[in-house]
C-alpha cells in the first residue's frame, strides 16, 4: 500500500541545519519547522533588541504573469494593485463569492505583467486551484500561474540591528529600501537575489528570496558573519512577535468564514475598483451588520493568559465570543489576545473565561506595542 501523499510532512532545504543547531522540530502547515532553538522567550527578546533569522521557506510562492495578470489580480483581491509600482509589495487578501477570506498574501510587482505572490503554506493547493479556476472563468488565457513553492527558500532577518549586521553581505543599500519595497541584487556573492523590506514581526528587517541551491550558503554566511549577534529563531517566537503587532494568522484569526471587514482589515479593501463580492463587503461596511466583530484585548490580571478557543463572556456568564490567538507578551509582561464577538447585544463588560473563572479584559487598539527601530 502506498502512503497517502497528503500525509507526508515536507522539509525545507534547511531541515538538517535546524537539527544541527538543536532546534525542536514540529509539524507546522505540513512542514517540519523549528519551534524553538533555545527558548521562545529568549528568541522573542533577542529579535526585539538585536536580530534573529527565521527560515520561512514553507510559505507558498507563485509567479503570475501574462498580458492580463494585473487585471486578474485586481479582480480576485481586495486591495488596489494600481497603487503600487515595480519594486513594491502589497498586503492583500483573496476572497470568495461570499466575501470570506480564502487567504491573505503579499504581492510583489516584478514588472507590469509579472507578479510574485507569497501565500500561506497550508493554503498552497487551495489558492492554486482558486486562481486557476478564476483564470478560466475570466477567460484570461494568456495568464500563467507557476508554482515555485518547493524550488525557492525565504529567509527572514528581523530586529533593530538586522540591516546593519548583514549589510556587508550585499551590494544593495539596505537602509535605502523603503518599507514594503524590494531590490534585486547580489547577496553572499549570489546574483539576482530578491531582498525585501518586509516581515512578520513588526521589527525592522528584510526577507530574502533565493533558490534552494543557495539557501544553505546564505543561511550559514549570515550566522557566521555575525556570530552571536544574529540568532536562529523558530515559529513560536515568530508567533508571539506577530501577535504583539496584532498581525492576523490565517486559520486562527481569519478564514473563509470571516470577511476582511469583520476582521477589521478594511484598510486593504478598496471599493474604487471592481472585485469579487464587492457589493457584499460594501453593504457590510455601510450597514455594520457583522456576524462576527473583531476585537483585541489585554488581560491585566497577573498569570492569566488567553489562548485560542477560550470563551469571552458577559457579566452574566453568557457566551458572547471567543479568542482566536492569545499569548503572554514578553514586552508588556501581560496576556494579550485577538478574538471575535458573536453576540450582537452590546455590553460594556467583557470577561475571559478560564478554568471556570471570569477574568476581566481591557479592549485596546492595535498594535499592542510601539516599536522604535
Rough outline: globular
CATH class of the largest domain: Alpha Beta
| Weakly predicted, low-confidence segments | none
CATH superfamily caption of the largest domain: Probable tRNA modification gtpase trme, domain 1
Mean pLDDT: 96
| Contiguous helical run count | 8
Lateral arrangement of strands in the main beta sheet: 20-19-16-17-18-15-21
- Our measurement of the CA-to-CA distance between the termini, rounded to an integer number of angstroms, reads 55 Å
Q: How much of the polypeptide forms β-strand, as a percent range?
A: 25-35%
Brief characterization of the structure:
The chain has eight helices and 21 strands. By secondary structure, it is of the alpha+beta class. Helix 2 (40-49) crosses helix 7.
Word description of this protein:
With 373 residues, this protein is α+β, with helices and mostly antiparallel strands. It has three domains: 5-57 and 151-245, 2-Layer Sandwich (Gyrase A, domain 2), CATH 3.30.1360.120; 60-147, Alpha-Beta Plaits (2-Layer Sandwich), CATH 3.30.70; 292-364, Beta Barrel (Elongation Factor Tu (Ef-tu), domain 3), CATH 2.40.30. The chain is 21% helix and 32% strand. The chain has a seven-stranded antiparallel β-sheet. Helix 2 crosses helix 7. The chain is globular. It starts with 9 loop residues before the first strand and ends in a 9-residue tail after the last strand. The model has no long low-confidence stretch (mean pLDDT 96).
